[in-house]
Amino acid sequence: MLQIYTGNGKGKTTAAIGLSIRAIGAGMNVYFAQFMKSLAYSEQKILQKLPGITLKTSGKPYFIAEEGMVDKEKIKKEWGEDIVVFPKNNPPADYIKLVRNGIDEVKKAVLSSKYNLIILDEINVALFFGLVNQAEVEQLLNSIPHNIEVVCTGRNAPDWLIQRADLVTEMKLVKHYFDKGIMGRKGIED
């Protein structure tokens, strides 16, 4: 089955981690590929230690955004050096290379026949920013045998991926403390 966790609410990666824990509890092996994330998040410390989970990251220690997506004042006030803004339809080449290398690593994991569950964490966002294209992701998905469960997470899941999926869950933002100026907290958001 192909599962999609998307939407503008919190919990997409958290749900994928929960499914991974359930899978290893059932004796399965999990390949957890995190796109657009470096080794900077708290969950990674434990995921790297759990038997049955292989964690691979392909990201940088900053966020990216297209010009016009984030207000310049907000960038200065809240993001500072933690964001790279790029011209529309022209994402950073080094980031494209990292994501494509991550896709290649997933392909190797699939060929190993070792894994029962493949998590493509933030692949939807990588697609949204043009770091990987539809054809590359479709080729990857087509290479995965039908007995392997696949989960794609991230905001802005494209329509073609939603149509292809067997399960789609949308996390909807109703209220968030970010709006009060409370930024990410260790162990909760990062």
Concise structural overview:
With 190 residues, the chain is an alpha/beta fold. Helix content is 36%, strand content 21%.
Q: What does it look like?
A:
- This protein has 190 residues and is α/β, with parallel strands linked by helices.
- The chain is globular, with a radius of gyration of 16 Å.
- It has helices at 12-25, 42-47, 72-79, 93-111, 123-128, 134-143, 159-164, and strands at residues 2-6, 30-35, 53-58, 63-66, 83-86, 117-121, 149-153, 167-170.
- α3 (72-79) links the parallel β4 (63-66) and β5.
- The protein has a single domain, classed as Rossmann fold (3-Layer(aba) Sandwich), CATH 3.40.50.300.
- The longest helix is centred in the middle third of the chain and has 19 residues, at 93-111.
Spell out the blueprint of helices and strands.
Layout: E1 2-6, H1 12-25, E2 30-35, H2 42-47, E3 53-58, E4 63-66, H3 72-79, E5 83-86, H4 93-111, E6 117-121, H5 123-128, H6 134-143, E7 149-153, H7 159-164, E8 167-170
Parallel strand pairs: 1-7, 1-8, 2-3, 2-6, 4-5, 6-7
Helix pairs in contact: 4-6
How many distinct domains?
Answer: 1
CATH superfamily: P-loop containing nucleotide triphosphate hydrolases
Straight-line N-to-C gap: 29 Å
Helix content: 25-40%
Key structural traits:
190 residues; alpha/beta; Rossmann fold; 6-stranded parallel β-sheet; two-stranded parallel ribbon; 21% strand; globular
